[in-house]
């Protein structure tokens, strides 16, 4: 138990530049506190002290703002950063070295008792702030879930999923360094500018501007050639409005 605690503390210090020392992590990081209390609750749950397990989980939620069902499986070196509003369901499995940010829900879409209702996160998955992963499917090792995404189907290993509903924007080999993937940000920001939606809008805007410039150059060339140009779209619209008013 103490060996795993030391590993958890070391992984937090490695992944969070704000963490200065082990004592600060133990006393001031609710994600670590919630996981430690989950171990107690999980032991009670698996040893048929189910009410006690639920009560410990309830106390942990009150103290940390993080709700982890005692039936959930949490791996080693899992880092719940900030953590407020995180909900992890009964049949969820969180693999080793996963990172979960605040407001994340690992929830279910089924009410069938005894069924696998919650997702499985394999080794090294990162789930951005506010994301919802809903269902009994698997998110592959090293995958990234973007901020505020809603994931309702499996995500391949090494892929990046964003949006609502989430779609795959990049599939690659899992990185050895946490979160170092272009196009992904745990907080929804994208300093690389590779977000597919914003990139599409930018390309569309540039295309429209280019078309307008070409039309203007063509109009000037026609005027220089001494050819009368047709009325502009605004002039045609005015004429159409005048005709409509006369008919009325």
Structure description:
The chain has 248 residues and is α/β, with parallel strands linked by helices. The chain contains six helices and 15 strands. The chain has helices spanning 2-15, 22-28, 30-46, 50-64, 196-224, 233-247; strands at residues 67-68, 73-74, 79-80, 87-88, 93-94, 99-100, 105-107, 120-121, 126-127, 132-134, 138-139, 144-145, 150-151, 159-162, 167-171. The strands form three sheets. The chain has a six-stranded mixed β-sheet with strand order 3-6-9-12-14-15. A five-stranded parallel β-sheet has the order 1-4-7-10-13. It has a four-stranded parallel β-sheet with strand order 2-5-8-11. Strand 14 and strand 15 form a beta hairpin. Helix 3 packs antiparallel against helix 4 (50-64). This is Serine acetyltransferase. Its main location: cytoplasm. It catalyses: L-serine + acetyl-CoA = O-acetyl-L-serine + CoA. Keywords: Acyltransferase, Amino-acid biosynthesis, Cysteine biosynthesis, Cytoplasm, Repeat, Transferase. InterPro entries: LbH_SAT (IPR045304), Ser_AcTrfase_N_sf (IPR042122), Ser_O-AcTrfase (IPR005881), Serine_acetyltransferase (IPR053376), Trimer_LpxA-like_sf (IPR011004).
Total strand segments? 15
Low-pLDDT regions: 174-182
The assembly state of the depicted protein chains is single chain
Give a short account of the largest sheet: 6 strands, mixed
The span between the termini is 85 Å
Silhouette = elongated
Q: Give average pLDDT, whole number.
A: 84
Structural class: alpha/beta
Contiguous helical run count: 6
Strand share of the residues? Answer: 5-15%
Spatial arrangement of strands, main beta sheet:
3-6-9-12-14-15
What pattern of helices and strands is seen along the backbone? HHHHEEEEEEEEEEEEEEEHH
Helix amount, in percent?
Answer: 25-40%
Rg (CA only): 27 Å
